[in-house]
Amino acid sequence: MTEKFWEHPRPPVETPIAPWTELPADPVQPTYEDAPRLLIERHHHELRHTVLDEWQTIPVTAVFIPDGLSGARIEIGQWSLDASEARLLAISLNTLADAAEPGRRDR
Predict the structure, then answer these.
(1) pTM higher than 0.70 for the full model?
(2) Taking the CA atoms of the chain, what radius of gyration do you get in angstroms?
């Protein structure tokens, strides 16, 4: 089967960052007592901003925050989830996609 560009994460839209590199402080993703955010992996996805009627490239980043509280997190733009919540979101998105396109099951 031929791979389609929308079936996999987009290529990086920035210079790749080595895993476990400290990310710059981000006001959108503040941490407890300004703990560092260490990059695990980053993907980029095109999401449609409905109100603005435009497509935007959104970073989806796995980070580790060594603050004794947060640990591993998945950041999606201005939102973040722990790994179990991210897995549940992935299952939910697959279920919704299957409901929206019931004849298409090519995962």
Answers:
(1) yes
(2) 16
